[in-house]
Write a structure and sequence with these properties.
about 140 residues, mainly alpha, 2 domains, about 85% helix, rod-shaped
């Protein structure tokens, strides 16, 4: 596709122009050789530059498309993560609620057992102490 153009270059005329401008001869020859080599490889034409600009525009359009695609994928992943986290949060809440209820049930049962033991101990104390026995009858704990 490249239509690189070769440039005709008169190295002797260039060396003469450089020497007349005050450049030392050995430096003028070196510069002439370098420039001649560069020109022998060809130079870009205006068509080459236009084609390159079009290719850059196409590449930029592809990059924009990839960027939009990535944005869409990132949004999808974020939504999925939010949904998953919400579901896990709900599951954790349900699990914690159940565990709290288990602890509550266990503590209630243990408190009932402790209350029963206190009543038994109080009853035994009352049976051995006539003053407490009278007090229990007054408050209606025993008949």
């Amino acid at each position: 596709m490249s239509h690189a153009m070769r440039v005709l270059f008169d190295t002797e005329e260039y060396v003469t122009t450089l020497k007349n401008g005050g450049v030392p001869e050995n430096q003028a020859h070196a510069m002439s050789i370098g420039l001649s080599r560069a020109f022998s490889q060809g130079v870009a034409t205006s068509e080459d530059i236009i084609n390159l600009g079009a290719r850059i525009d196409m590449t930029n359009a592809k990059i924009d498309g990839v960027e939009k695609n990535l944005d869409t994928k990132i949004e999808t992943v974020e939504k999925n993560l939010q949904t998953e986290l919400a579901a896990q949060g709900s599951s954790i809440r349900t699990e914690l609620t159940a565990k709290i209820e288990d602890v509550r049930t266990t503590m209630t049962a243990e408190l009932k057992i402790q209350k029963t033991w206190l009543i038994i101990i109080a009853g035994l104390v009352a049976l051995t102490n006539p003053v407490i026995m009278h007090l229990y009858k007054v408050i209606g704990l025993i008949h």
